[in-house]
């Protein structure tokens, strides 16, 4: 018996698919497919907010430099404002790295409900639903491999 995927709630082997308490023989699964649900706008808004947070220090630095150049002050004061603005702009680099990591994680989580379906005994059965895109794709690929290796047509 080959194990294609296993976590706390899903196990896919060459013989069976187990999702929570439900179990199905791989040979009983016919025409396996997936469906994407409607978009969750909270995930999209979250990504947009992260983008704005990354741009904030850069916009503030640019604004500071423009103000320093437009003000009619001594060269020392203008240089101090420009230097402070550059420091604020440079502070955006480590912050941007942390925020980009959060953006990557938001893509892993996904913005849609994903569903895994199969025909079992002629009736469509929803096997799994998740918003975790990475996990869902791993499960779907593992199930495809299990079905293909068993000779069942998907």
Task: Offer a concise description of the structure.
The strands form two sheets. The chain has a four-stranded antiparallel sheet, covered by helices on one side. It has a three-stranded antiparallel sheet with strand order 5-6-7, with helices on one face. It is of the alpha+beta class.
Summarize the structure in words:
By secondary structure, the chain is an alpha+beta fold. It has two domains: 3-39 and 110-150, PH-domain like, CATH 2.30.29; 41-109. 54% of the residues lie in helices and 29% in strands. It has three helices and seven strands, in the order E-E-E-E-E-H-H-E-E-H. It has helices at residues 41-70, 75-109, 133-150; strands at 3-6, 10-13, 16-19, 22-25, 29-39, 112-120, 123-130. Strands 1-2-3-4 form a four-stranded antiparallel sheet, with helices on one face. Strand 3 (16-19) and strand 4 form a beta hairpin. The protein is rod-shaped and about 85 Å long. The model has no long low-confidence stretch (mean pLDDT 84).
């Amino acid at each position: 018996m080959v194990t294609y995927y296993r976590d706390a709630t899903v196990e896919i082997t060459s013989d069976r698919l187990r999702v929570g308490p439900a179990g199905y023989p791989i040979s009983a699964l016919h025409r396996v497919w997936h469906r994407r649900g409607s978009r969750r706008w909270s995930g999209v808004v979250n990504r947009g907010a992260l983008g704005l947070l990354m741009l904030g220090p850069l916009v503030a630095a640019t604004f500071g430099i423009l103000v320093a150049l437009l003000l009619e002050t001594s060269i020392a004061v203008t240089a101090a404002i420009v230097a402070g603005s550059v420091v604020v702009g440079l502070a955006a680099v480590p912050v941007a790295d942390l925020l980009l990591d959060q953006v990557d994680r938001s893509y892993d989580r996904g913005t849609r409900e994903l569903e895994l379906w199969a025909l079992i005994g002629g009736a469509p059965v929803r096997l799994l639903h998740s918003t975790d895109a990475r996990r869902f794709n791993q499960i779907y690929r593992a199930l495809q491999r299990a079905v293909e290796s068993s000779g069942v047509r998907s």
